[in-house]
Amino acid sequence: MSGSPQRFASPSSSSLPARPGLAGLPARPSPATTYTSHARQPSNESYRPRALDRSPPSASAARHSSAVGSSTASSSMNGASAGPSTSARSRWDVQATPASIAPTAAVNGHMSVSPPSGPSRSTSHLPTGPRGRSDASFDGRKFASEAPSSRTGYPSQPRAPPSGPSSSSLPRNPVSIKMSPRNSNSNLPRLPPQGPAAFRAPSLAPSAPSLDPFFYKSLGTKDYKVEYDPETDPSSVKKGKEVIYRYDGAGVELVEDPRKSSSPAIVSKLQQVKEKAAKPLHAVTYAWDKNSTTPAPPPPPSAILVTGFPGSTTADAIRSFFSGYGRIESLDAHVDKQTGGSLGICWIKYVDDLPRGLDDARAAKEKFEREKRNGTAQDGNKVALEAIARGNGQRVGAAMVYSNAPGVKVQMDGTGALSKAAAEAEMGRRHPAPAPPASKPPPPPSTATTTAPSPPSGPRPPPPPSQPVPFSAGFQQPWSSVSSPFSQPARTPQSHLPSPPTGPSSTHAGPPPPSGPKAMRATSATPNGSSNPPSASSTHQPSHARQGSNGPFPPSNSYSNAPHSHPRPAHAPAGHRPSGGGYRGGQNDPVSAAVAQAVLAAKKRLEEKQAKINGEEDMELDSDEERAIAADTAMVDAAQAPTSDLKAEDSDTGDVRDRIFFHADGRTEPFRGLRRGKAPANAIAWQASRTVLLEKLADNGMPYLSISRTTYDQQRTDKKGKAPALKGDDLEAHFADFDIDRTFADRLGWYLTFHSPGAAQKAFETLHQKPFAGAPLELTLCAGERPASPSAPPSAPPAKPPTDYDTVMERLKANGAPPSPKTSGWTDAELVEEAREIVISDLVDAFRKDVKDRVVAGKITEHLAAWEQGGSKTSASTSTVKEEPSEPVSAAKSLSSLPSFARKKNRQPSNGSQPRPSLPSSRRLSSEAPSDSPALAADQSDSETDDKSRFKSKKKHDKARRGSSSKAEHEERPAPSTKRSKMSKVRVNYTSSEDEGDDEAQVSVSTCPVEVHPALPRAPPTTNVPPPLSFGFGALAAAASMAATPPPTGGLLFGGTSSSAPLFGAPPPKTALAFGGSAPQLAFQGGAAPLPKRLAKKRAKRLAAEGRDPYEDDGDLDDEYLTEKEEKALQAAWEAKKSRALARKAAEKAARARIPTSTPDPFELGIAADEEDLYYVKLALQRFKAGQNMHPSPPPSDDEENHPTRRHATGSARTEGYYHVTVAEKLANRPPSAKAKPVNETGERATTDSGVAVSRLARANTRGLVRGMELHKKVTATDTDVLKFNQLRTRKKQLTFSRSGIEGYGLFAMEQILAGEMVIEYVGELIRQQVADRREKAYERQGIGSSYLFRVDEDLVVDATKKGNLGRLINHCCVPNCTAKIITINGVKKIVIYAKTNIEPDEEVTYDYHFAWEEEKIPCLCAHPLCRKYLN
Amino acid sequence: MSAPAAASTSSATLTLSPEILASFKPARVFRKHNEAGRSFTSLSFDDKGEQLITAGEDETIQLFNARTGKHQKQLYSKKYGVHLTRFTHKSSAIIHASTKENDDIRYLSLHDHNYIRYYKGHTKKVVSLQMSPTDDTFLSGATDDTVRLWDLRASHAQGLLNVAGHPCVAYDPSGYVFAVGLNLRSTILLYDIKNFDKQPFLNIQIDDPILSQRTYPPRVPVLTSLAFSNDGKWILVGTSGDVHYVVDSFDGHIVARLECVPQPGSTSPAGVMGLERAVASPYERPMEPSAGLSSEEVKWTPDGRFVVGGSIDGKIHVWDVAPPPEQRPPHYPPPSPECTLFPIKSIDGHVGGPSRAVAFNPKTAMFASAGNDLAFWLPELGEGGAPDPAV
After folding, report:
1. Which pLDDT value is given to residue A1150?
2. Prior bond of A500 cis (ω within 30°)
């Protein structure tokens, strides 16, 4: 009976040995050792007795198991194999179906303890046990039939006495649990056991905590596993003919991850797997064949290189020798190109007949083999190999044979490359390369204005003695230590290379620029010497050194080394000596020295500013600052390089950046600032850059070509009119054949240097008068050392300054900034002054334009429109100032609400220390209508614009605080001394300008935008301005402070001397300057966008609280010492005031433009066409004066105007098409509640009853089906959406549509819908995306405002517009009670709305549309408290 | 002629690294071994990595020598059609699924072109087929919503699993566990090979949070292939969509999402990769892939670190899925369902068609990819380049 255990073992398919003595023998091998994957603890007390009622053999098994360890007790498989005892199975049945089986089990209960049954069970495991096998088909169904006979009544005998001697001592019997895996009821394959919960629970809980209840199989199907299959039984003696199946895991108690078991077999297997995976892979390569992607490899070499024979050996001798190995295809005996003699190098290629092709490989090969046998074909590679093997060391030719020469050397050289290289080497050996052409030492310079050109190679000659010494000894001292021509020969290799002189010929591929990122910045960094790292200076020094210690210095390079900390150019060491002064020579040109000084000073200032800026994080300040800096920079740059072509060179660090200094047209725009004022300096600076150019040219040392630009341009324009700008690259390309080194350009022409001495000559010959870009190039060949200017000698700079200079000057004059008469020498102050004027004039322009464009024009048109509509209904007409024209007021009001416009401060210059009665001007009052009660007006205006101004002022305020050097965080901290010193500096500026009677705006500009904010508010305490004045600076922001300190005198609008009158019309320079002074602020406000508004607002709010205090203290401002807080507040107030004043001014301007105040001729002005018109005009003006609207408003229309229904413009609704209903209208018209409206007037729904009836019917009809589904759900433990859909489709929910409180119609529930239930399917046509797109447009065209397109997936859309059900009426709600799901039924996707929450009758059904975020917002009308406001 | 064939420097070995993976280039392209316009549909290497068997739409079976990169044999299966060719553990015999006549799986002896056995049972097309790594059993999943376990020696199934939806199957490399992927529910069920008929011991739900962020409702891609990594740690879940997943095979967590970089200028948030979009027009596109293009296009490398995948545009993407911690590149996202990995290399592979099948050689550093043509890929082991000979 060997088949028996096998069959029994198969359920677990264990690797156990046969278990003949399984049940009875205490020492039997434990199944638990092999099946330890389940850690089940039969901890249930109520279950334990069942173990105890077992027969002794079972108990012994239990003992064994407990010995193994109950925690790792053997699994259900163990149970299945170890104890397929009938009693155990029956117990399981009891457990599983207690309701049905328990009674019989109780009856059969004592059978389990009856002696006969025990042995029978134990013997069932023995191979000889016929009974054990007979009932152990392990098919549940079979078993079920015989189960009653052996069923034990566990429930009836929970405490059965132990029948085995040792079983009582065992508290647990895991086996008993494991022995129960027979599910006899095959009809309920998945029925969860409903026995004691504790029994089942531990089995599942640890094994699959995350296990879903879905088993994914359809009803009635069964999974099976073949337990025994004779076909796969390897043994020859089959155990049976039938295949034995196990269905649905019968007998398996629980399933665990076998990989997590600690069984040694599995562990070792997993280890094996890991090792296998970690094994490295073999590397293979494929021989080339026709499928290869790479091109065919070259055939094996069939050529050889023969060397080592004397020159007397003839080629014929070699040929005759080596043709002995095979036919020679070619023989190349290299000869000395100069002498014609043999080099002793010979390259021999043998004929190769081997077919290499792959296509007709076979035939060709056969042919080859045939011919080879005939001797007419040879394999070149083989022949070559043979030649190498046998020819090596042979003496070739008669000359060699009779000499003692060592014999030739033969090596493989398939391509001939080796032989070429050898020939070249030999040539090089025989004829060493001629020394690079030594250049002549340059003649000494004739004038002091040109630099000494240095020779390109070799030791540099000492500087010519005749050269002037441009610098004083004090300057020279530091330089002399580094400027010796021989002291640092190798510091910058590329600038000392003998030839080529500098860098690679491709100028773009120059060495990396040494300077830091700042140096790369286009404009602002240019003069910023500090940005050049030391490496830059070190690379510069050689170029200076080249000039000798006496040599002039290039103007641009020297200062780039300058540390910016030096206070004065006069004390600057030579390392950063003034750039302008050096080259000219101090003694013969004081102007240049002055310019240089000025430039240096300006630079220094810029650097300081830059540093300051860098310290600040304020973006706006930065932007503002950069404007000023850019202006300054432009100026400085222009001073250095008025010939703007060389600007790049100047801004770069000379040699270090080998770039093309080539600009086709002079960039005049950035240099406008300088040209404006500095014509003579211009020429000098031009000269300076010219010098640099000459130096560069001299560096090259070779002859170079210069191309006259003027003639060229002229020719071009003659030919083509306005020719496009010439590009440097084109020119370079034009000369590309001639080994050009570098290209330079200046105003007069272009300069091309070459690498080789002859190249210039060659290029000249080739390209002279050859057309280039439309015009012939006029080339001039110049000797290497002295560049000759193509049109003007370098010593004679063009007398005429750049042409636009004049125009700029004119402009400046027109702007009221007179050109400075200073032409000789520039001090720091003068330079600054000049810059200031330029900046001011620019700003004035900008501001004027800004005011015109953005404020006045807009306001005028806006107001005009308002006016024409029948009089402004602003409060202005009823304001306290009756005689004030309404227009400016309203304009001012609206201006004050402009978000991004600063209001001008209202400040008046105080005359020296004389306390000037200053009044916070009320911007409410125009010049024509001075207010009698300024405080009141101001108060009012404050209240009107409080928020805005506070917002603005706080922003500024905050900025100022951050910008201040002290960075004081504490509100109460007094300003530290550093601040005081700064303040005092500011004060000097301020007071001095005041003394000069300048406008205060100039001060604000002269103190530079950085300092505007910190400085100005501080001015009041430091200048001896009394409290009223200081208050005048800042008070307007707060009405409270107004009340606290009433102005000494009233009625002054603009304060002080500035009257209101000159503000209009063409603003005089002063006013313009005043505007200009605030222009930075404007720029500020305009550029305030980067600052996050919200942040600013927050800040403003925060500061609003603190800012209020100082104003309350303002009344007792007897102390000169303002706390910082006060200062800040003051400043903020000042800012606010200023902006307000600006706004007012603009408004006044607008008013001015609108209403002519003088007595012009009305007919001339076109106001009135005739007398009648004039009459009405007068009438209107009277009305106007009386504070009424100019146009009499028509009497209020009666009914139809106020009628809410719309009128049809065409007279017929039909012709109108459709009306667009705005959101506002929707909001206005929506029903108050979201409940369904009663259908009829009586308030009862007719549909309700019938609907209920229908529902009842439907329920009845489908009850059976539902029950079946429920059953199926129970059976399969499946609860899928599919099922739910099917189930719920059987009975539709009672829904109705009605006017919705959300929009249009909505869907309302008429019965309670529980959460999770299906509500309705969104039915519609299933269309493709493209169709949907078209339809959407069509619907839009037809005026179907609502979209009923519901996207199913990326390609499909459900369109319920024309065909659909109620589901399309469901409205969006941000907090919906339903949700839409896409489920797939029979391969078709459906949109189903499921209830998310319980829906009460009459409640509207909503779901979230989940629109994607879009720029164009669709407002949400769901009115839910948590509404997101928008659908998308 | 230089050294004939197989310059297989069998001694030289290498460990795959991102550099090596990135250096793979097509070394061989076979264009003439299938009918024009008919694509290869599946690739399989034998255990030793010496031979490659292909199935094609032209109903031929091609045998290639992977060591030498040469075509060896062409077999026809015109009567039954051929799909999912798989080497058995003997390199002289393969199994393959049918596309015609019936849905049997066929056991074919290569050297005499004889069918040894038909495995009968499936009633619809078989879409997934894998040999057990350890013994002569194999698993098949078919569109009749069943998974069957077979033994090469018996023509009837040794096990049956009824599942809902079309399954794809994969064996754990230890052979103790197999996985069944259900495309309908984006679920992967892990079964103990001994007790699969009872229930799965692990149920992995592929719930991709990224998809729901992109579209509402999320467009859940259809699972078309499963593959355990060779070390058994990960499961690669190939889909017909534009994303594949890597799942921890022990705890079932999504470890990574594999996507490709979107084309510049494309509006879709993810690169286009999925194969199924080519077959059916969108309207007709079935929810379940009926033996469509997808299922053969994503494979593990033998070391279980990289994933090589084809895509609809013919590209071959290489993902570095499981770099060892010490080699993990900086900013490597931690494993999570949101962890989206982009290819370390996307190589333009097959022109004018999808790269439908990819197979990495289990023993040598080469892989094959197939679309309308077949390519053998080798790393370009440059001088001083990536490869580091391990031994």
Report:
1. 56
2. yes
Q: Max Cα separation, chain A?
A: 140
Q: With an 8 Å Cβ cutoff, is A359 touching chain B?
A: no
Cis peptide upstream of residue B209 (ω within 30 degrees of 0): no
Question: What CATH number matches the domain at B3-38+127-378, 2.130.10.10, 3.40.50.300, 3.40.50.150, 3.30.1490.100?
Answer: 2.130.10.10
Secondary structure element (H or E) that encloses residue B226, with its range: strand B223-228
* Residue A133: C-alpha distances to residues A2, A13, A178, A231, A240 (Å): 11, 17, 19, 22, 13
Q: What is the mean pLDDT of residues B207-227?
A: 82
- pLDDT of the residue at A993: 37
Residue B118: per-residue pLDDT: 93
Tokens 């002074």 belong to residue: A1077
Q: How far is the C-alpha of A30 from the C-alpha of A615, rounded, in Å?
A: 81
Minimal Cβ distance to A1353: which of B158, B219, B363? B219
H/E/C letters for each residue in A1194-1236? CCCCCHHHHCCCCCCCCCCHHHHCCCCCCHHHHHHHCCCCCCC
Asked if A461 and A486 count as a contact pair (C-beta separation under 8 A), the reply is: no
Q: What is the pLDDT of residues A285-332, one digit of tens each?
A: 888 888 888 777 777 788 888 888 877 778 888 888 888 888 888 888
* DSSP 8-state assignment for residue A794: T
Q: Which of A252, A286, A1329 sits opposite B198 (nearest CB)?
A: A252
> Residue B53 pLDDT > 90, yes or no?
yes
pTM of the model: 0.41
Contact B68 A256 (CB under 8 A): no
A701-725: burial string, b at 16+ Cβ within 10 Å, e else: bbbbbbbbbebbbebbeeeeeebee
- How far apart CA B178 and CA A254 sit, in angstroms, is 17
Whether A1403 and A1311 have beta carbons less than 8 Å apart is answered as no
Gap between the Cα atoms of B33 and B370, Å rounded: 11
A958-1004 pLDDT, tens digit each: 444 444 434 434 444 444 444 444 443 434 334 333 344 444 434 33
Is the separation of the CB atoms in B167 and B182 below 8 Å? yes
Contact flag A225-B151 (C-beta cutoff 8 Å): no
The Cα–Cα gap between A288 and A271 comes to 40
Place of tokens 């490359």: A417
> Can you list the residues of chain A whose pLDDT is less than 50?
1-213, 438-588, 615-686, 688, 722, 786-806, 808, 816-824, 871-1097, 1099-1100, 1103-1122, 1156-1157, 1198-1203, 1237-1251
CB A631 within 8 A of CB A670: no
Taking contacts as CB-CB distances below 8 angstroms, the residues of chain A near B190 are 257
Query: Does A1121 touch chain B if contact means CB atoms closer than 8 Å?
Result: no
Length of chain B as a residue count: 391
**CA neighbor of B213 nearest in space, from A1379, A1426, A1352, A1412:** A1412
Contact across the interface for A300 and B2, Cβ inside 8 Å: yes
Residue A490 has which token pair?
């190798």
Please indicate whether, in this complex, the C-beta atoms of B287 and A1384 are within 8 angstroms of each other. Answer: yes
Confidence (pLDDT) at A820: 44
Q: Evaluate whether A105 touches A153 at the Cβ level (below 8 Å).
A: yes
SS3 B272: coil
Cβ atoms of B44 and B52 closer than 8 Å: yes
Kindly state whether B144 is in contact with chain A, defined as any CB-CB distance less than 8 angstroms. no
Euclidean distance between CA atoms A1077 and A905, whole angstroms: 10
pLDDT given for residue A1052 in this prediction: 36
Q: Do B304 and A273 touch (CB under 8 A)?
A: no
pLDDT of residue A261: 83
Nearest to A345 by CA among A312, A394, A306: A306
